[in-house]
């Protein structure tokens, strides 16, 4: 049934929150802003750096702060604590062994996504990595998903999107794919949308995707 699996990055493949949080804290200190609790910060992961900067800074600071945050993240914290979630690498290896195509759809910039995947050893498993800067619109737009399916020559109906945020569910459903909601990630309440599957652990994907 499935020929392609498209994964979200932060909160689905990799636990990146501790390193992203440190970079955010350094950025907010530069502006004398209050540091949010870690749990509050995690609620905003999923929309790229903009998504977790906007709740904590005034709009006139966003563009400048984004550059600062990326600098701090890439020079101080990238992959200090980031690691694949338990079972992820085993699942990726098994799916590749079954002949499936694998891709990443992330609201990170593609260059940053490529870097963390390389540093964590996961990059060789993926046929394509697509950040927010490549498609004309990024998640929750379906264009992010269709950009990938078109380039890999797979129909959306033969594609499974795996993610931990509403953006992943919306993008996948509107693109015509099946969607698995990753409950091990940085999840949020889903309002008015319903994934095809809820999965508690990455290994459950192996049951959804028959050999």
Notable characteristics:
211 residues, alpha/beta, Rossmann fold, six-stranded parallel β-sheet, two-stranded antiparallel ribbon, 8 strands
Low-confidence stretches: none
Order of helices and strands: EEHHHHEHEHEHEHEEH
Based on the coordinates given, report the CATH architecture of the largest domain. Answer: 3-Layer(aba) Sandwich
Give the helix tally.
9
CATH topology name of the largest domain, in short, is Rossmann fold
Q: How large a portion of the residues is in β-strands, by DSSP E? A: 5-15%
Task: Note down, in words, how this protein is organized.
With 211 residues, the protein is of the alpha/beta class. Helix content is 41%, strand content 14%. It is built from nine helices and eight strands. It has helices at 17-30, 38-42, 48-53, 62-77, 88-97, 110-119, 142-152, 166-175, 205-208; strands spanning 4-7, 14-15, 83-84, 101-105, 128-130, 159-163, 178-182, 197-199. The strands form two sheets. Strands 5-4-1-6-7-8 form a six-stranded parallel sheet, with helices on both faces. Strand 4, helix 6 and strand 5 (128-130) form a beta-alpha-beta unit. The longest helix has 16 residues, at 62-77. The termini are close together. The mean pLDDT is 95.
Spell out the blueprint of helices and strands.
Blueprint: E1 4-7, E2 14-15, H1 17-30, H2 38-42, H3 48-53, H4 62-77, E3 83-84, H5 88-97, E4 101-105, H6 110-119, E5 128-130, H7 142-152, E6 159-163, H8 166-175, E7 178-182, E8 197-199, H9 205-208
Parallel strand pairs: 1-4, 1-6, 4-5, 6-7, 7-8
Antiparallel strand pairs: 2-3
Helix pairs in contact: 1-4, 7-8
């Amino acid at each position: 049934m499935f020929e392609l699996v498209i994964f979200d990055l932060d909160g689905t493949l990799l636990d990146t929150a501790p390193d992203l949080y440190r970079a955010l804290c350094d950025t907010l200190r530069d502006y004398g802003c209050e540091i949010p609790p870690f749990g509050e910060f995690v609620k905003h992961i999923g929309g790229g750096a903009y998504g977790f900067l906007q709740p904590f800074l005034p709009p006139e600071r966003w563009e400048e702060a984004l550059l600062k945050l990326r600098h701090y993240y890439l020079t101080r914290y990238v992959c200090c604590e980031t690691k694949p979630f338990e079972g992820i690498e085993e699942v990726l290896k098994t799916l590749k062994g079954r002949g499936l195509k694998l891709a990443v759809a992330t609201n990170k910039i593609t260059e940053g996504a490529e870097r963390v995947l390389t540093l964590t050893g996961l990059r060789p498993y993926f046929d394509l990595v697509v950040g927010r800067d490549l498609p004309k619109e990024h998640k929750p737009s379906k264009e992010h998903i269709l950009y990938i399916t078109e380039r890999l020559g797979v129909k959306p109906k033969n594609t499974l999107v795996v993610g931990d945020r509403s953006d992943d569910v919306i993008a996948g459903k509107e693109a015509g794919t099946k969607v698995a909601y990753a409950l091990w990630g940085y999840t949020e309440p889903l309002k008015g949308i319903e994934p095809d599957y809820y999965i508690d652990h990455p290994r459950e994907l192996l049951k959804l995707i028959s050999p």
